[in-house]
Write a sequence for this structure.
């Protein structure tokens, strides 16, 4: 059976987005620290950052295409 998808609080998302603005790739220790602060698992943090980078790349590519 598949696990249900977690819903993150606004506070967690805000902190994740704020971190993402300054650092696109977390080190293992940064991930551990952030997971502890936000009461999330390290794998949730890792997957959130993977998904957010994908979203960022798509937006960035679209912006570059429009700029041409």
């Amino acid at each position: 059976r598949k696990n249900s998808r977690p819903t993150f609080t606004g506070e967690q998302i805000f902190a994740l987005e704020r971190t993402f603005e300054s650092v696109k790739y977390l080190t293992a220790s940064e991930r551990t620290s952030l997971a502890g602060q936000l009461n999330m698992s390290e794998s949730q943090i890792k997957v959130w950052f993977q998904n957010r980078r994908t979203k960022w790349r798509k937006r960035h590519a679209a912006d570059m295409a429009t700029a041409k």
Observations:
- Residues 52 and 58 are 10 Å apart (CA to CA).
- The chain has a mean pLDDT of 94.
- Residues 10-67 form a domain with the Arc Repressor Mutant, subunit A fold (CATH 1.10.10.60).
